Amino acid sequence: MSRKVAITGIGICSSLGFSGEQIINNLKRGGVSFSRPSFDDHVVISPVNDFNIKSYTGSFKERRYLNRGSQFCVASAVDAIRSSGINKDLLSNAGLFMGTGPNLDIGGEFFEIQEGEMDRKDLMALWMLRFLPNTAASAIAMYAGIHGENLTVNTACAASVMAIGEAFRKIRCGYLDLALAGGGDSRLSRGGILAYKKANALYTGSGEADKAMRPFDSKRKGFVPGEGGAVFLLEEMDHAKRRGAEIYAEICGFGSSIDGHNMTAPEPSAAWAEKAVRAAISEAGVNPSDIDIVSSHGTGTQLNDEAEAHLLHRLFGANGPPVIAIKSWIGHGAAACGALELGISLICMCNNYWPEIRNLTDPCHMELNFVRMGRNIDARTILLENFGFGGQNGVLIIKGQ
Amino acid sequence: MEVLEVIKRLLADILDMEVKDILPEAYIVRELGAESIDLLEMAVSLNAAFNIEVNDADIFLLRLRDHVTEAAENKTDVVRYLAERLPFLKRDRIADIVSDLEGGPTLKVKDLVSYVEWRRVNG
Predict the structure, then answer these.
(1) Residue B40 is part of which domain span?
(2) B2 vs B59, B80, B105, CA distance in Å?
(3) How far apart (Å, rounded) are the C-alpha atoms in residues A333 and A14?
(4) Option in B15, B33, B40 nearest A125 (CB)
(5) Separation in Å, CA A174 to CA A169, A192, A205, A232, B48
(6) Total structural domains in chain B?
(7) What residues does the Carrier domain cover (chain B) (predicted)?
């Protein structure tokens, strides 16, 4: 009998809020944060407002080395530990698996580069820590006293879902009993916006900011970048039960693959993404017909949604499970999107309430069961998909208790 | 702003502390919890704030214990020996440091002030 993996702690920093209660309330009342950045009125962003890392860590001198994405990782980890009620001594042998993105805030970090000259007197001695991908892990390990197996995953928008998947496997296979897993990211800086704008992946245009993000709608025009983080305490099921932990859900399966097709665009038939989905379903020991709800990647780009719709239709046919698209609520969290979407899905499951896909008025595929109005759905088995630049595919199957 | 106030502000920033909790007599490592990377940042910050060259080994007393050993080997007076190598510290402060070696790293906030003031005069 293979070991089971429970989720026993959740920490989340999202544009919908920082607690289950805030998030479910904002999902029900449409409390989104879409707005225009001060420096570019052609794009729309979904920022996390009122976030202060210090309110999580207290005095913590390593804070100065954390870029905004790393700050979301650390804050979420602190909250995940708090919510799990775990004795901190147990964390010594825990693992740590973080999905992070690159710090693209080049102009903010080096605001006066001239002819390639970056040096200036007020540059920190260890400025590079704000760019290294594993700075968040280093800070979390120091804060929480973690010393076990670990991995920082940088697979673009599949990074945090893959970090969670790798942690799941380590526990399932007996290498670890406990692991913190998740991720954080922010690319709302000028550099981040410039990068995705140049790549033609962003929504650009005038009109109402909160109408810009419209996954699976035939008038979709690209994604709205978001930010945030979410971290989970994963725990071997018996370990969790022995200590009387609250069990939010069970992770049952993980699959990953890589398209090998294009540096940015998904492979149009989603054949390789499907490989990851089927691997996760197989590992979970379920059938497609057992899936109660799909948390789609749903970026609102022409290519992603088209490919993902084909994939879901092949998998489920015409009478498939309800499909949600959390990015229509929080924008695209980049490396953090999988962790954010898992966190919000768990909150929805606990509340028996699943939100509509915002701005979906003319679906791009007529035979998929898109959720068009927020409603009570008794969903116990979730399929969660993320597909990133570089053809990175990561999929989880989660079961409620 | 006087040197002490600037140094307190820089330390507060690097160590994520309140300025009011940083006193001239505070031990930077023993009490304020600075580690080697924090001293590295402090050197960079002092250089930028005062436009002075900062010698890490001197200002942070990194070779203090080597010097004490050398003085013993040479059978010279340890205070006089240290005063030659750490000219920014006054004799009475050096005597305090020598009597305090067993307690751990002896560097205090006021030693940084002495270094900066000495550098400003002596270049």
Answers:
(1) 3-122
(2) 18, 30, 26
(3) 9
(4) B40
(5) 8, 39, 51, 18, 51
(6) 1
(7) 1-76
Contact between A193 and A345 under an 8 Å Cβ cutoff? The reply is no
Which residue among A63, A64, A124 places its CB closest to the CB of B44?
A124
CATH number of A5-400: 3.40.47.10
User: Hey, where are the domains in chain A?
Assistant: 5-400
- What token pair was written down for A339? 């962790």
- pLDDT for A111 equals 86
Angstrom distances, CA of residue B122 to CA of B88, B114, B119 = 10, 12, 5
pLDDT in tens, A213-252: 999 999 999 999 999 999 999 999 999 999 999 999 999 9
Interface A-B, measured as beta-carbon pairs within 8 A, has a size of 28
- What number is the ipTM of this complex? 0.85
Residue of B44, B46, B56 to mutate, testing the A interface (most A Cβ within 10 Å of its Cβ): B44
Residue A1: the pLDDT is 55
Q: Answer for the pair B41, B14: CB distance below 8 angstroms, yes or no.
A: yes
Q: What is the CATH number of the domain that holds B111?
A: 1.10.1200.10
Structure tokens at B100: 């305090």
Cα(A369)–Cα(A19) distance, integer angstroms = 29
pLDDT band at A210 (very low <50, low <70, confident <90, very high): very high
